[in-house]
Amino acid sequence: MSNENDRVREPDMRAEYDFSRGVRGKYAGRFAEGRDVIVLDPDVAEVFPDARAVNEALRLLARLARESQKAP
Fold it and tell me: I want to staple 48 with a disulfide (CB 3.0 to 4.6 A). Which of 17, 35, 52, 53 is the partner?
């Protein structure tokens, strides 16, 4: 029978991190409801600091793309 002190810690894990009361997958359901997580590159994140800014820019780009396809 092993105890907590016998567990092997990951090299990047600090000793003060305590996940003993953690719940695996606690927030996984939110992502299964149709939310996609997209990681922005740092240079892009500087320009678009939050989801609202990214969504506005992408909606504008989508509208411009649709309009350019309709133009003769």
Answer: 53
